[in-house]
Design a protein that fits this description.
With about 350 residues, the chain is α/β, with parallel strands linked by helices. Helix content is about 20%, strand content about 20%. The protein is built from seven helices and eleven strands. It has a nine-stranded mixed beta sheet with strand order 1-2-4-3-5-6-7-10-11, with helices on both faces. The protein has a two-stranded antiparallel sheet with strand order 8-9. Strand 6 (about 200-205), helix 5 (about 220-230) and strand 7 (about 250-260) form a beta-alpha-beta unit. The longest helix has 14 residues, at about 275-290.
């Protein structure tokens, strides 16, 4: 990297702090499916595991290479385009102006349409999956058994899209980051738990953990809430990841975001309240913070169950630059947490504000 590029990287906050290398990023093969030509904008009919998938490509505005990668994931009721361009949904495409290659995957349930936000993407999953938008957690019954040790086709699709984009643009294999809201946050947890050799980090926002018993069997919604409330510092199994959970993750950084007391989800009249992200984010933070090679940052705010709404773009830029400052293999001992924008409280380690009377 020449001197101009170095200065640009420092300005963007993308240069790593001095560190002791722990483990290099896994070798990445830059390749597309046979005959596929990737381009900026919307890429459609991308063949992956018997399906035709779609994804957006927003190249970095800065002429800096190799570029860090940001893969943002929408949740249940908002489209991929909302997540990329609507301010209330994150407008994540703007991160290309911060020097990131932004790759926006389209959900299977949308049938390749990045504008789709209808009922096909809102409800219980099928074929062993818990919820529709993403392959983000195994079902609690026997149909979920095949996904105990298999991350599923969404997790591999994200990697395949990055590998294809890398055939045209220079990407930094030590700075692949994924993040999302709600079901997208759950999918982020899953990708990080299964593929910590590939990702340098991620930002699950209000993501599920699907807390289980120690033997991996499911818990009813209220039973899971009570279990975490009674054991707020315990490491808990979850249907979001492999069973059993990995003994040791590869080096990475995880920023878990909780939207405060209103961070809840109602599944409608027939089901009612079906998700409480207080216990879910507590459980996820407990696990990630316990990993010796993982930097975990716990962030709380008051925006409820949405992409962070206070100083949104300042928060996005802070979070991505924070992650990019800690590439694959950097030592957790050298990580320095800079102050987040107003409206957020962030700390290194697990959450301590969820259950203060017990924690």
């Amino acid at each position: 990297m020449n001197r101009v590029a170095v200065l640009a990287a420092m300005t963007l906050g993308l240069m790593a702090q001095p560190s002791v290398a722990i483990a290099a990023a896994a070798a990445v093969t830059w390749q597309c499916p046979d005959g596929y030509q990737v381009h900026d904008g919307l890429n459609v009919d991308f063949p992956h595991k018997g399906m035709k998938r779609s994804f957006w490509v927003y190249p970095p505005a800065e002429a800096m290479a190799p570029a860090p990668v940001w893969v943002p994931l929408t949740g249940t009721v908002e489209s991929t385009n909302d997540n990329l361009t609507a301010p209330r949904s994150g407008a994540n495409a703007l991160m290309a102006q911060q020097g990131f290659m932004v790759i926006g995957p389209v959900r299977q349930c949308a049938d390749g349409d990045p504008t789709y936000a209808g009922p096909r993407c809102n409800g219980p999953g099928a074929d062993g999956w818990n919820w529709k938008p993403w392959n983000e957690g195994r079902a609690a019954n026997a149909s979920g058994e095949p996904w105990k040790q298999d991350a599923g086709p969404d997790a591999s699709f994200f990697q395949a899209a990055i590998q294809c984009v890398g055939t045209r643009w220079k990407l930094d294999p030590e700075r692949f980051y994924i993040g999302g809201i709600s079901s997208g946050g759950t999918m982020t947890n899953r990708a990080l738990l299964f593929d910590s050799n590939f990702w340098a980090g991620g930002m699950p926002i209000s993501g599920e953990w699907y807390v289980t018993r120690a033997d991996g069997t499911g818990l009813a919604f209220n039973d899971a809430r009570d279990f975490v409330a009674a054991n707020p510092t315990k490491i808990m199994q979850g249907r979001v990841g492999p069973y059993p959970l990995p003994a040791r993750l590869r080096p990475m950084i995880v920023i878990t975001v909780w939207g405060g007391d209103k961070d809840l989800w109602n599944c409608g009249p027939s089901i009612g309240l079906c998700a409480d992200y207080r216990p879910s984010t507590q459980a996820s933070s407990n696990f990630f913070a316990s990993q010796p090679d993982v930097v975990h940052v716990a962030c709380s705010s008051t925006h409820g169950h949405m992409w962070p709404q206070i100083n949104t773009q300042a928060f996005n830029a802070w979070a991505l630059k924070t992650m990019a400052s800690h590439p694959k293999g950097a030592s957790p001992k050298d990580f320095v947490l800079t102050p987040p924008p107003d409206g957020y409280q962030c700390r290194i380690g697990a959450f301590t504000d969820h259950y203060p009377e017990r924690g």
